[in-house]
Structures are given as structure tokens and as C-alpha cells.
Amino acid sequence: MTANDYLEKAERALTSARLLLDSGDVEGACNRAYYAMFDAAHAALLASGAIAGGTPPKKHSSVIAAFGLQLVKTGQMAAELGSALNQVERLRRLADYTGEPITPEQAQWAVEQAGVFVAKVRQGPLCSTHHPPSEEP
């Protein structure tokens, strides 16, 4: 997959996150918000050339670590984006695996962070193709 393929996938996940949040499915919204960020992180890593051979890591922890080391630490992406990726990933794990309740406010925050993350990757210097902004709810 190319960086643009990952960005398109991220946009679809973000749209799903917003729809799930609007319908009251906070766990689903957190899941899709995280995957929007995860796919956008893949896109950024590929577009930056940080991935040797063009194959991004498959494990979640590897993608998050590579994003932090290759893009945040080098100043190509803002530290706040790396932090948000980690925090939304934590919410996704809670939603998917623990049964611990997720509040609507936490889900709203996760979806907002995903929107910012995807937009920054899309509009940033790493991706050459600029896609139109996602529709807001």
C-alpha cells in the first residue's frame, strides 16, 4: 500500500468514528478513531521515507514507536501528535479488551484527536497529495 492508500483508509476510519460517536457507540468510536490515527501514521512513515524498503511495521507498538522516533523526535511532526496517538491507542485497548467504561467525553476527545491527526498528516510536508478535508459531523 502507498502513503495515499493509507491516508484514504484513515479518512474512512475517521468518518466511521464520527458516525459511531453520533450514534452513541463510544467503544466503536474509540476503535475507529485509533485506526484512523494508526493508518495516518503508516502514511506519514511511508511518505517520509523513514521505512526501509517501503514496508511499514505491522505491530501497533512498532508503528507508534517508529512514528515517535522517526517523525516526532526529528521534528517532522509535532510532539502533541505522538502523545495523542499513544493516548487514543490506550483508550482503544480499554474499549476493545477490558470492558472498562469509556465516557462519551473520552470518545469525543479521541475522535477530535483523530481528526486533527489525520488532517496534520494530510496537510503536512510529508504527503504530496492533498485530499479535501473530511466532513465535520
Characteristics:
single chain, 137 residues, mainly alpha, 5 helices, 0% strand, disordered C terminus
Summarize the structure.
The chain is mostly helical and 137 residues long. The chain contains five helices and no strands.
Structure report:
The chain is mostly helical and 137 residues long. It has 5 helices and no strands. The chain has helices at 3-22, 26-48, 60-72, 79-98, 104-123. The longest helix is centred in the N-terminal third of the chain and has 23 residues, at 26-48. The model is unreliable at 128-137 (pLDDT under 50).
Report strand %.
under 5%
As residue ranges, the low-confidence spans are 128-137
Listing every helix as H and every strand as E from the N terminus to the C terminus, the arrangement reads HHHHH
The level of helicity is over 70%
SS element count, helices: 5
Largest sheet composition: none
Overall 3D form:
globular
DSSP, total strands: 0
Question: Kindly state the mean pLDDT as a whole number?
Answer: 84
Rg, Å, rounded:
14 Å
Distance between termini?
A: 28 Å
Category from helices, strands and their pairing: mainly alpha
List the helices and strands and how they pair.
Blueprint: H1 3-22, H2 26-48, H3 60-72, H4 79-98, H5 104-123
Helix pairs in contact: 1-2, 1-5, 2-3, 2-4, 2-5, 3-4, 4-5
